[in-house]
Amino acid sequence: xxxxxxxxxxxxxxxxxxxxxxxxxxxxxxxxxxxxxxxxxxxxxxxxxxxxxxxxxxxxxxxxxxxxxxxxxxxxxxxxxxxxxxxxxxxxxxxxxxxxxxxxxxxxxxxxxxxxxxxxxxxxxxxxxxxxxxxxxxxxxxxxxxxxxxxxxxxxxxxxxxxxxxxxxxxxxxxxxxxxxxxxxxxxxxxxxxxxxxxxxxxxxxxxxxxxxxxxxxxxxxxxxxxxxxxxxxxxxxxxxxxxxxxxxxxxxxxxxxxxxxxxxxxxxxxxxxxxxxxxxxxxxxxxxxx
Length: 291
Description:
Keywords: NADP. The protein is globular. The protein has one domain: Rossmann fold, CATH 3.40.50. The chain has helices at 20-31, 43-52, 67-74, 100-127, 150-170, 188-194, 197-206, 214-226, 231-242, 259-270, and strands spanning 11-15, 35-40, 56-60, 82-85, 133-137, 176-182, 253-256. The protein contains ten helices and seven strands. The model is unreliable at 259-264 and 281-291 (pLDDT under 50).
């Protein structure tokens, strides 16, 4: 990890911490000195996480439990300085095959749970005068429609707006609330999905590279496949939003994406919007190139 942070003396709750992004966030916070409480359903994986870090405690539980149950589970550890709402799920269904069970599960995990956990945790922050920070793990899917992702996209769009609403209300207590919106991340689940053409094909086909032909399309397809996000890129964004480096930042939906920037740059340079542009070297690097 390129960025270095010191969270010594801070206490963080990370949900969905038994694998993938949540596991990596809990690990990074622990290495940065924070006392971490990892919440997930998989006891074996949580035990594995705890065995590697003396400053990680675990809670085996479901984020969709009732408010009273969650309050009881978290009470021994309150108040927290940080909350990372990472737990999430995705069930792909086409418009006419949507099931009530899947829609309910997606909305419960991706939207209701972060809302209720934010309420429970930030209430104790405010009561104890803790100027804390909340980071919600959202998605680029909150900003654009995707095939077979109706419930998932809606849940993440709702999470983005909940983030803004909480930021507006909790600012008076010195509590910041932001979200991180990654594109496809190379977790074990992501690698498995994107190595299966039946799963990756429909998503890749929605990227705007299909309008190109020949070598350019091949190049962009190879670029997209090679530049899907690594977990550490998301972790660094989360650590930044929890740190004192972002004390003036709240209500932000932070895109963590690279592929779309390149594709959009190509689209612009091929469009009529750039008819007066030639001989340009256009940097697509997040603004770090000195012009």
